[in-house]
Amino acid sequence: MSSKQLTETDVPIILTVLQCCGIKIRADDPAAMKNFIQSVQNRVNELKASSREGQTNIDRKRIEFMLETITDVKNNKKKPREETVQHTRIKKWLQKTWEQVVGGKRKLMGSA
């Protein structure tokens, strides 16, 4: 979310990342997660203000669910549910990507 405005494509992306690894991100870097949560909440508040003026058409239920998920991550609550195959695939992909990034940095540092 580099832009100041929350778009319709941002909501499912944020939801997927938070559902998949929000608790882990919170444990690894609580300050960054706090800043991210505040940023999303500010953007949602701006979106609600603009919707009163009739300027938006983003699904409210999706946004409310995203806010519930953010609150759960913020309060360190993990919803009891089975991981879906999609989330398992995303976790594996993120782990593989992370290992490549870290491995690449080690190779670069070792060659210097």
UniProtKB/TrEMBL annotation:
<dbReference type="InterPro" id="IPR050781">
    <property type="entry name" value="CWC22_splicing_factor"/>
</dbReference>
<dbReference type="GO" id="GO:0042274">
    <property type="term" value="P:ribosomal small subunit biogenesis"/>
</dbReference>
<protein>
    <submittedName>
        <fullName>Uncharacterized protein</fullName>
    </submittedName>
</protein>
<dbReference type="InterPro" id="IPR016024">
    <property type="entry name" value="ARM-type_fold"/>
</dbReference>
<dbReference type="GO" id="GO:0003723">
    <property type="term" value="F:RNA binding"/>
</dbReference>
<dbReference type="GO" id="GO:0005730">
    <property type="term" value="C:nucleolus"/>
</dbReference>
